[in-house]
Amino acid sequence: MAFNIDLNYKTILITGGAGFIGSNIAFHIQDNFPNAHLIIFDCFRNNSTLTNEGLQSFGHYNNLIGFKGNIICGNINYKQDLELLNMYKFDYIFHQAAISDTRALNQELVFQTNVNSFYSLLAIAKKDGAAMVYASSAATYGSLKSPQVVGKESPENAYAYSKYAMDQIAYRLIQTETDISIVGLRYFNVYGIREFHKEKTSSMVTQLGLQILSNKQPRLFDNSNHIFRDFINIEDVVQANIKACKPKKNGVYNIGTGQPRSFQNIADILQQELGTNLETEYFPNPYKDYQMNTQAEITSSKEYLGFQPKISLEVGIKKYISEIKRLHLEFF
Which of 5, 62, 94, 154 has the most CB atoms lying inside 10 A of its own CB? Predict the structure, then answer.
């Protein structure tokens, strides 16, 4: 489905295109707009880690098997790498590259990568007259009570604050640049194909599914039937990105289903789909001030982007099962 926009014969940049969401955007465009000129810019992984031992980059070539467009290996923090983009004039920019680990402790690196580079990408968008669609985050809401509403934020870590800072940059541009198209998308809990290489930060759907297939008890925090998240399938996230290319109104929008589901729901649906009946293992939540409920308020997303989530958690997991089984066979 092409979402009522024609990207054929357009030159399109996807930063972070070897990552989870970026690669799915790339393949959607390749499959639906075969005459689009796609350029992926990604630093790929080199085993560099953050101080919390998480990977700096989740980009992986496996996510791009079958991709037919151009690939540039580059780091958005390096001016000389960004200069490689000068050979193109872009119509659309999907800016997905970031340090996305919510527990990253190196604030300098987080802000250089997420905030400073945003200025650089916006400069390219302004020079080329390109529409900018960038990844914000539901982490900007911190532990505020649900539903989460754009305009009421409380970032509680460096990553969340960096995304909040990006949103403020966007808002200022919207006010001063009348001819710019810029949309920020606050993703909630995204799951689906091509997320495996996020490793420890991959979704509960992937992690629990692989646990169950390994005949291990699904492990959940105590009282997981009372911990809720707004889980959204990657196909609906791609839908939002494509629709954001031509918004009715510039701005920042929530991308979730508006229908929170419990952690226990995830484990139960997976067991039903996999035909297992393993006893769940519960353990104490080690995190202080843990967010107990997220729910995207998506009224404005529907009105100004035409966004409409279509895939329920049950349907999304059912569609994902074959891929989880493939991953288990290949890597476990």
Answer: 94
Strand partners, 220: 282
Domain count, the chain: 1
What is the rounded CA–CA span in Å between residue 45 and residue 227? Answer: 33
- Host domain of residue 138: 11-197+232-258+289-312
In a domain, 181, yes or no: yes
| pLDDT tens, residue by residue, 131-155 | 999 999 999 999 999 999 999 999 9
Helix, strand, coil in percent for the chain, rounding step 5: 40, 15, 40
Where in the sequence numbering do the catalytic residues fall? Answer: 159, 198
Asked, for residue 264, whether it belongs to a domain, the answer is no
- Is 330 part of a structural domain of the chain? no
Separation CA 110–CA 98 (nearest Å) = 8
pTM: 0.96
**Cα–Cα distance between 227 and 187 in angstroms, integer?**
18
